[in-house]
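Take a look at the protein record below with the fold in mind.
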Amino acid sequence: MLYPPVPISFLGIGLMGKPMAMNLIKRGYPVTVWNRTPSKAAELMSAGARLGKSPGDAVRHAEAVVLMLEKGAVVTDILFTQGVADACRDRALIIDMSSIAPAIAEDHARLLARAGLRYIDAPVSGGTTGAEKATLAIMAGGEEADVIEATPIFEAMGNVTRVGPHGRGQLCKLVNQCIVAVTIGAVAEGLTLAKAGGADPAQVRKAIMGGFCESRILELHGQRMIDRNFVPVGFIKNQIKDLKAALEVAGKLGLRLPLTDQVCRLFVALAQAGKEELDHSALILQIEAMQL
């Protein structure tokens, strides 16, 4: 088991990565961090983290390396171009908590195995709130023994479930993103209907919270829609990335996902209107624009 004081490296200190790394520090792990913008690591350094000079430098002494990066191409670059795979200790455990395509995760698993390293793809759901409170839903793909060994690390950040071999954690995340996106669309349509019909959307949300449509999406994203608070917790651009990945996987399996396809088109239209940096609850803006 990778209990403290096993050294951990954390690569990627963004909206999600920073609180996740902080929770590892709070749990007692010696953490070395790296980020393209070093200033983002200042708070973590004040809490006791070491700042790596480069990705390779950050992982040299780690027994586990956690990545929380923007997309698959960035993960590939960090692992295989910027020297992480070469710099790691033999048999180190690479835990990629980024959201990337399942096929890329499978490729990474094969390449890292050839380099004498172990790998888990472990994307998360729960947003920045879950990252801060260490209540993230963690979807792990990989060898069962590796996931069991990494459980103490995962428990410092949330709740882990192994869903299958390499790549299946990322597949599970795509399932999550399909459901989240379609539900955001449903909440946006419902609140738009409420307002147009002369009801108070805030009171409508309150009234239906105890019914069958009660959900985290209605609770949190519905409130953001009512407050017009679209400060990003989950970026529209990342939602599009994940939905396109889900549709690509579905196509290869001979499946049609009509609801996912339609909501993806709505998000793309919103991004093309210059709003890709907003929170994905801003989908209500696209629904409203269609009424004009």
The longest helix spans residues 168-196. The mean pLDDT is 96. The CA atoms of residues 82 and 116 lie 17 Å apart.
